Amino acid sequence: MRDVEVREVADFGDLCGESPVWDPSTSTLYWTDCGGLRFHRYHPGSRHAETVRSGIEINGFRLNRPGGFVVTNNRGLWLWDGISEGMTVVASELSSRPCRLNDCVADPRGRVLAGSWFYDPASEYPLGQLISCNTGGALAVLDDGFHLANGLAFSPDGSLLYATDSAARRIYRYEYDLENGTVSNRHTLIEVPAEEGLPDGLRVDTEGYLWSAQWYGSCIVRYDPDGVAERRLSIPAKQTSCLTFGGPNLETLYVTSAKQSEPMPVMPPGYDPEHGFFGGPLYEVNVGIQGLPDLCANIRIIKSEQES
Length: 308
Prior knowledge:
- By secondary structure, the chain is mainly β.
- Helices cover 0% and strands 49% of the residues.
- It has strands at 6-11, 17-23, 28-33, 38-43, 48-54, 60-63, 69-73, 76-80, 88-91, 93-94, 97-98, 101-106, 112-116, 128-133, 139-146, 149-154, 160-165, 170-177, 182-191, 198-204, 210-215, 219-223, 229-234, 240-246, 252-257, 281-286.
- Strands 1-26-25-24 form a 4-stranded antiparallel sheet, with no helix packed on it.
- A hairpin with a 4-residue loop joins strand 17 and strand 18 (170-177).
């Protein structure tokens, strides 16, 4: 691709920066440091970045149409007004299993989909599930068998769902029934070679191409709808974690990274988990390709149980 400038726009030393989400109504970029328990925002117009809240665990989130955010974390799925210390629980378990949720996405109807994860390379562990939460707060299992569930995204018309399993080095494609919120015909669209990084955060552009952040890979990879790598965008951080499209025309990529080294057995051969620049900053890249907007959730439920 043409030469592009990768610009560092904020550096809070995020232990694990994740889940950037663009709010077009306020021209604001939000993201989380799920390792450092912090939630940030960035205003490109003023180039001002700030920490909104500390001491809060957010692995993934989406703006919620009734207000605030829908949040996924290691204890379940929550509603948060974006200000208070506490969050309102929607679900903390499903079928007697904890909802230990990682990344999430909203579908065009306002449902929230998320993946549960229990990955522990040192011992046996249950496999995670692909979970859907409808607008009334009811959860359903769409699929299972995920080693380390991660980035999720939809095709431009909403008929296809893409789901990442980082430890398995795969990005799956499903047919998605928008009316019923169900999936079918899982297909391995992308199998990332062992010598590359792990597929992590995921977004789709208006042409239907997938953009996947590579943890351990110092890059973003753009794949065509058939799963063929079309281009690579180098990022200074070894642990490039997630991305989203923002800016007035959704042509700017915002990319998160992680400062705290996280070695795993599925690292590429020769990867050094002790030396080098792992990450921490938020980056900005004008790629000149329009991305799809981050859809809003529409979860309308109030419960009395509060997170302490």
